[in-house]
Design goal:
33% helix; eight-stranded mixed β-sheet; single chain; 436 residues
């Protein structure tokens, strides 16, 4: 039986943070409301800062004011236990050990700010479900002092959360999930509230109190459950003529990929993502050559090509070789009155195919990218999809695989009438676009 000071009277499930603090570099503490995550970590940090001089940073993705931070938790604990700290508006200092605790928002004016993180002994990232992959990729390498640790506390919104995905399986990370029923200090009022929530709305209860990721977050377009089903659909092929559609999403910015996708009809209602190829060479001649080569190997009846921005010149060149190439302009007008542009139209169409189980997707990377596609609404009710640039900023990668699949589904949904009785593409005029 370990005897701990009063300040470390925390849920038993979290005691390994103390006993194994020298065994791990990272601590991932997740779960729902009432589990005591933040309260316990604050207690541990205050105790450590009494024992020796440490520099602690408590950070979040964004922090407009000190009230957005865990400053109040520290202040209340210091007052409750009459601890020997001086509490300032933006810093807490121990009067004997000279340990310091600072508070920081990592992202300012859209940029990641690592100022003040040099020499940090303990980094505590609260509300870590809000940390983007791009922020994570910059912050973590900055914490490199010998014996330094990083603690994450979070309640995941989505399954493929950047922090969770990166650290949950690492052997240098201690992962603990804790909920209100694991916390002996959880007030009866909260327990009663959890019970009422469970009776009222099981999905809300699973997220708020059990700490399970939401199936569908309001901002996200696709349901995680539907994406799982898309991966596990059983294919029952029939004797229908196979139709193949090839799509190519072209790299728009540095670090983006060119991605070609091939989908094929399996029966009268089901399509399957058969292949995806990608390349990163910026040379347009290489890109043209790869597209033509894949076209000859895959032998699709439909070819749709990203023609936005720099892609237009590649589209024109490809069309001279493959006359039946269809262009996709994401910013062009939509066929749907509720979609802002053609890209939003394409993603809403893809959502229809996934929700109705008309599409089998076996690519984990593509499913992962689809899971973080965000939608929003214009004042007139039209749906628009978050830009690739914004997604790359949040997640560290552009949704090139997802966009490529979206274009293929868009093509077979809106251009399938171009197939004649012999399942051959009808030759199109070089300037033909039925939606302009």
């Amino acid at each position: 039986m370990i005897e701990l000071p009063e300040i470390l009277d925390i849920p038993n499930k979290l005691i390994p943070i103390i006993t194994k603090i020298n065994d791990y570099n990272y601590f991932l503490i997740e779960g729902g409301r009432g589990g005591g995550k933040s309260q316990s970590v604050a207690r541990i940090i205050l105790w450590i800062a009494e024992q020796r001089k440490v520099r602690v940073c408590c950070g979040r993705e964004t922090q407009s004011t000190i009230s957005d931070s865990v400053h109040k938790i520290f202040n209340d604990l210091i007052n409750d236990y009459n601890l020997n700290y001086t509490v300032k508006s933006n810093k807490i200092i121990h009067n004997n050990s000279s340990s310091s605790i600072i508070f920081k928002g990592f992202r300012e004016q859209g940029q990641v700010n690592i100022k003040g993180l040099e020499g940090i002994d303990i980094l505590w990232i609260d509300e870590a479900q809000a940390i983007s992959k791009s922020t994570l990729d910059i912050i973590i390498p900055t914490i490199r002092k010998k014996n330094s640790i990083v603690i994450f506390t979070m309640n995941r919104l989505v399954r493929r959360d950047p922090v969770y995905s990166e650290f949950v399986s690492r052997d240098d990370c201690l992962h603990i999930k804790i909920n209100y029923y694991d916390n002996k200090f959880c007030p009866e009022k909260l327990v009663a509230e959890a019970k009422r929530c469970k009776e009222r709305n099981v999905q809300d209860y699973e997220y708020i109190w059990e700490g399970n990721p939401l199936d569908t977050v309001n901002d996200f377009l696709f349901s995680a459950i539907k994406l799982d089903k898309a991966k596990n659909i059983l294919i029952k092929e029939d004797l229908c003529k196979k139709i193949r559609c090839m799509s190519v999403d072209l790299a728009g910015n540095g670090g983006d990929l060119c991605v070609a996708s091939l989908i094929e009809s399996k029966n009268s209602t089901l399509w399957a993502l058969e292949k995806q190829e990608f390349w990163s060479e910026p040379d347009t001649d290489i890109t043209k050559g790869k597209i033509i080569n894949l076209y000859s190997v895959w032998n699709p009846q439909l070819l749709i090509l990203d023609a936005d921005g720099l892609g237009y010149s590649i589209y024109v060149s490809i069309k001279n070789v493959i006359p039946n190439t269809i262009k996709f302009n994401g910013a062009a007008s939509s066929n749907r009155p509720n979609a802002l542009n053609r890209r939003a139209d394409g993603y809403l169409t893809l959502k229809d195919y996934i929700d109705n189980e008309w599409l089998k997707i076996t690519s984990d990377l593509t499913i992962s990218q689809l899971e973080y596609i965000k939608k929003s609404y214009k004042p007139n009710g039209q749906v628009f999809i978050q830009s690739k640039k914004e997604m790359k900023s949040e997640h560290g990668e552009s949704p090139d695989f997802a966009d490529s699949l979206m274009m293929a589904i868009y093509a077979i949904n809106y251009y399938s009438y171009l197939l004649d009785e012999r399942d051959e593409i009808v030759l199109l005029d070089s300037n033909f676009d039925p939606y302009i």
